[in-house]
Amino acid sequence: MSAEPEAPVAEARARANWVLVLLPLALLAVVALAVKLCGADPAAAFRALVRGAAGSRVGWGESLSRAAVLAFSGLAVALSFRAGLFNIGAEGQMAAGMAAGAAMGVKVLGAGTPGAVALPLVLLSGALAGAAWSSIAAALKQWRGVSEVIVTLMLNAVALKLLALLTSYDGLLKNPAEVHQQSAPLPAGATLAAWGGTSFHAGVFLALPVAGYLYYVMQHTRAGLSVRAAGLNADAAGACGIPVARVTWAVFAGSGALAGMGGALVVMALGYLPNMNPYADYGYMAIAVALVAGLHPLGVLPAALFFGLLETGARSMERSAGVPSQVVYLVEGLLILALLVRGLRLPGR
Amino acid sequence: MNASSAVPAIRCAGLSKRFGAVQALHAADLTVAAGSIHAVAGENGAGKTTLMNLISGLLRPDAGTLEVFGRPAAFASPLDAVGAGIGMVHQHFLLAEALSVAENVALGRRASAGGWRFPRRQAEEELERLSAETGLRVDPRARVSDLGVGMRQRVEILKALTRGARILLLDEPTAVLAPPEVEPLFRTLETLRAAGRTLVLITHKLDQVFALASAVTVLRGGRTVFEGPLQGLSSDELARKIVGDASSAVAAPPANRPGAAVLEVCALRVPAEHGTGLHGASFTLHAGEILGVAGVEGNGQDELAGALAGTRRAAAGSSAKLCGTELLTLSVRSRAAAGVASIPGDRQREGLVLELSLAENLHLREAYEAEHAADLGGTWRLSPARMIARARGRLEAYGVTPGDPELPAGALSGGNQQKAIAARELSRGIKLVLASNPTRGLDVAAAAAVQRRLVAAAREAGAAVLLISSDLDEVLALSDRVGVLYGGTLSLLGSRGVSREAVGAAMVGA
Q: Does a structural domain hold residue A5?
């Protein structure tokens, strides 16, 4: 009796699950063909990918540090999508976090600031900058009715130009002693040292409590219930007294803060602000991470790890097997398509 | 003509369908004589919609056979059913609002001679011809978004007819209609039948069964419990077959001495969004009193309920005082804290978050009220386990089935969804209850349960109840005083015993 309206959906799901079995196979075939067209041996390319991503300490270190960046931006996307807000701007918010984190380190903190003070401050400034950056989209949406998709997307380009600007002028953040356009180094206390010749750093661990915290907030607090209710049905939430407008502000700020923290982590690990984001496009890949995770905060962790491995493996495959890393991006694209075929539902609208 | 000797339009035998753990249909039978109007009656969740979805090709049966005009049919998709001459008019219309009537009717039809150019003129003329033939008057050039509900329904029927439907399945066709639109629909259906088409009418409303159909099939719990001609069947007998042994009569509330004034509304004006707006309503509601507001939908009902509930802004100069406190400047949450309960007219849009669990839906208000904070986990924390435990007893008390608080609200039938809303809104300290069409689309038993709750809220909890309903019978049965909204103006007709004719006349502005 209860299932009546849901029934056709359930049948469609069952059919889609069958498709889901076939899809990875089709996916593999397409990738093998693409590798073949590049003039390489698919089996060798695959081996190179796996070995590069997870075949050594260096590979794991690289994969995990990439996964951490993806986890923060993935959590940012998952939070906003859960609220029915389509923040496509993790890329820009991450860049804002990088800039602010570097500014805090270079301009405010002294050389002798201990890590216990410096690291939280850099992280906090990154979070605040990310929140401020995404709040522009929130303001335009609330006051002028502009779609957040357009605004966040456009602001990504602006934020990246901002990085270039900050690292181009001596008066700003550029290091006058350096030919390359990059900022002066962050004080030692504000950096995260790499572990034994790998790219792994302690900041990677931070993704775990943050994801756990977000999960707790979403499922075990009043604020989480507000976000989920407003995202799934703003009319009903509003009629029950949930302040939907305030939830929108808070979610934009929180989402931007998560991405901004990811950005701060990047500069802490690098030790300076580069003029180009070394993790370019990770803010977009974060959308794939969040969708693969089913918008579940804890699901974001394995999803981010998967994409981190894929990223590292792709680069290694390019070097050792001569297969362009674009082949891997083909995989990512097809994977998202496969998820859409499964009938993934986004809340809201 | 002897119907039994002719080939039936539809013959289903032993149709079964299971969704997960729920056996929606259990070897159901249905035989519909060609050229007749056949009613399919049953409570919410009896399996009516599932049966129609099987016949219209939306679902495939687990077991059983289906014959259309004597030919065995196994539909793989709704398109197959359309090919066999079956057209379905859904309760919720499937129209593209931005397109014109002619464009909507042409949508989804296979392109003809025109190739991929849309022959607009031709489509419009064709539709005009069909309109004239069937008496279903619509302007082919009108945009669907500009049409009222009754007109949209006509477009749906025309859509089915242009696809060559000889059998029309109508799911609760009057549920969305205002009373004056029902009569024209009935005439239309009668005309279509006279022209040789077969109509299958799914309905809760017994008077409609008797007014239109010649035979009826009653489903209960997924089984066919009765099938036969209506001749010689009394309304009481049919009602008993539908609900089984449960009593279905709505007891009129006992007489009542009005208490102190609870709500004083003065010159309440609400600007129009779609309908007429509300032009200055003034009335006083007393403790324990039920004020029923009848009227054809779109005459200011949404505005009145919305302004008091806080989802709509009232114009400057309006006033509504709850026990002396001005309501109109308060937030929705503060109004709830002050004792306002609201059963909104559109339960799926404004009442529940269908994807959230019942436990969460039941706490959409209480979770944010300070006096429940300790019980629910703390000032910030909200314990899922505590919500589930609290919801369980409440769901049981309000007769919500299935009463599993962890189920998503969307898994429930309409009647049970409405009971869940009542459980959330009425099991609190309440002074004022706003109920908009609280029993719309519900079966007899569920409607009676909700109505009993409203009466109890007034008589036992001493709340003032504002019942806004387009169901005249409901208003007359439950109300201590009766008012009518017409063209955005509220007129109070007086207390208990006001005549049906007087209310009816006021509803159409006579």
A: no
